[in-house]
Each structure stands twice: as structure tokens, then as C-alpha cells.
Give the backbone structure.
Amino acid sequence: MGFGDFLAKRFQKSIEKNLKKSQLNEENVSEALREIRLSLLEADVNIDVVKKIVSAIKEKSIGGFIEEGVRADQQMVKIVHEELINVLGKEKSELNISKKPSPIMMVGLQGAGKTTTVAKLTNLLKKQGKKVLMVALDIYRPGAIDQLVELATKNKFDVFEKGNQNPTKTAKEAMKFAEENKYDVVLLDTAGRLQIDKQLMGELKEIKKITSPTEIILTVDGMTGQDIINVATEFNSTLKITGVIVTKLDGDARGGATLSISYVTKVPIKFIGEGEGIDALSEFYPKRIADRIMGFGDVETLFEKATKQVDQRTMEKTMRRMMQGLFDLEDLKNQMAQLANMGNLGAVMKMMPGLNGKISEDQITTAQTKLKIAEYLMDSMTLKERRDPRLLKAINRKRRIIKGSGRTEKEFNELINQFEKSKKQALEMAKMFKSGRMPNLSNFGR
């Protein structure tokens, strides 16, 4: 269950159940609000934030004017959506990298994924054309420096490390090195602790004094619930943090603490981590997160993922072949590879309007399993066989592919049947476009 799923299901169910009426009134609003309040508390939303959201919704909804043709449930959805945006922060908070080089202190407790997040942020900034230097300052956690160096080597990033040398001295040398080599951004991977202590904070204050960072970003684990608010409050009181990165939101995180952190600390969320891959760090857009929670999907992020991760030439070539009736198993294999490049299938599906909160984890798991089976089968085919699926009618070829893939005859037949169905539908659509008619999309994908 990813971030927003828990609330999405409960909000939608509550509003649909209680507000299928023509007008909002105290009785039906109160019942819906009771369930919304319980949902927020179950999702681990801070009690002050719950009170704020519920109070604002009540004030705007009871006796509120409903435009002609707008149902009560639609009006309530609009009000709840607005309040979620107000709590999350109305505008996206930009990263301050105005000076050159711009030092960014990355702080946090052990286990939050800070070091991995440093590499992910480096990757994101490099894609924006920035020259980035990672600096290893955690001399206390065994393997912390090695981990950052390994991430740098694997992804061809630049890293500055001086072993177990005093972190403040290393930070000073790193800044000099960055200036001399014209780096745009310096990411300082500072030491974490299992808990906040005076020694940790003292060292961080020294590094802050030496480097004059443009940002001090706290990395917190999205699965730790209300504790992340306490951690953020402590760090903020000592260091005056400028932003937060919430990690592990692709796991079983109910998301309530994430919903609360900006409101309680008055510090904006800058990024969210939703996976283990180097690309699994996204800029935080309050409206888009509110859209996900309300089940609207997240078309903007989905489009951005497609633009960045999908090979446009390959997709255009595949579309042309589909329209010409030339679609084959190699094209299908390429399409599946492009989909995989966009990240976790469940996360992608939940960005589609109307699916978040309505598609179950079992359905997602089934879809992922079918895609994997298809991949194994097609990998066991030769390129010639994928380009000319008619060859697969030969019994000896079919047996070889089934044996090589470790799959069953039933799974092989399902793949071929689904492929033939998709090819037929694509051809029908192409004919309609050529004749100037709009295809009836409701018939496709069945």
C-alpha cells in the first residue's frame, strides 16, 4: 500500500456513502466528517492537523451553496481537496541553489535512507544539468563512507571523502575543492544517529557554520509515523532546517505523518522517495499529492515520468507499426520494457485518474505477475519468432519456448491469444482513424 492509498479508499467510501443527496446539511456532513476524522487518525495524522482539516471542511460545507448540477458528494470532494492542499502547502517549494557552489546539508537519523537519498538527489540534479559533488562526512556509521563511494562508482557520480578525518575539516576541504573545480551543488552527507544527541547536533552546527549552506534538508522515514514530526521539530529548533525529504512512501506507509509534517513544523516537503531505484525520488507537489488522496490520479507526474523514462523514438515507431497493422511480439516486448522504465507498476497505475483507492493490491500483483510471465516467454523466443509470430504455431518451437522459459502451455497460449486480440484491436482502430471516424474506445482492452 503506497502513500495516499489508505486515505484515498476511506475518503471516497465515506463521501459516496453519506453524501448521495442533493444538498449538504448538518446531518449528512456530520456523519461524513466523523468517518473522515477517524480515517485521518487511523492514517496517523497529527491530532492538531485533524482538527484543522475537519473544522475547515465543516465550516465550508454545512449550508454551503451548491451550484446547479453539482451533487453534494462532488461539492464535498472539492472542499476536502482544497483543505488537503492547504495542509500540505499550497505551492511547490523550490530548491535553493542560487549561489555557486550551493552547499546542501543532508541531515537525519540512521535508517531513514539519507545516504541513498543523497545519491538520488545527485541523479536528479545532474539530469537538470548541474555539476554535483557528494561529500562523505559520516565517520561513525560503519560502512557509511563506503556506501556513498559505491553509489558514486555505480552511477558515475563525483564524491569527495577523506576517510575518518574530522568531518568539519573534510567539509571545509570539500568546499574549497568544489569552488576550484566549478561545481554547482555540494551535497554534504552528514552523520546520522540512532537518536538525537548533543554531540550530533554540535557537529552539525559546526558544519553549518563552516559551509553556510543554502539548504539544510532533513531526511525522514515515512514509515515511522508520528515520530518523524518529533524528529523534524528537534532538528528544526537547533539547525533551522529549510526542507524535508520523506522516504519509503512506496511501502506500507499510511502517509498521515507526511500529511502533518509541513503544517506542524512550517517546513516544506521538498522531495519524496517512492522506491529503491536511483530515479525513485520525486519533487513534492502538494496539489498532486492531494489529487492522489482524492482518487483523481496524478496525470502531471505520470506525463513527466513518461517523458523522462520512455524512449520517444521507440514509442513512435511502435505506434506507426500498429497503425500499419505490423504490430508483432517484438513491438509488444518493447512496450513492456518502456512501461518497466517508468517504475513500480502499482505506483504508475495509481496515478491514472479514478484508479487510486479503487484498484486492489491483489489486482496489481496479478498484473505484475502476468507481465513477468510474458517477459519470460518472449525472452525464450528468437527475434525471428517475435517478428513473425506465425512461426510459433510449430509444435517443436512452442515446446522449446515453454521449456526454456519454465512456464506452462496454458500461459503460452494466453500470451498468444492476448497478443492476437491486441493486434486486431489496433488494426480496427487504425481503420477508423483512416476513415475519419472516431473509434469507440469502450470496446478496446476487453
The beta strands are 102-108, 132-136, 158-160, 185-189, 215-221, 243-247, 269-273, 281-283. Residues 409-434 form the longest helix (26 residues). The CA atoms of residues 109 and 192 lie 5 Å apart.
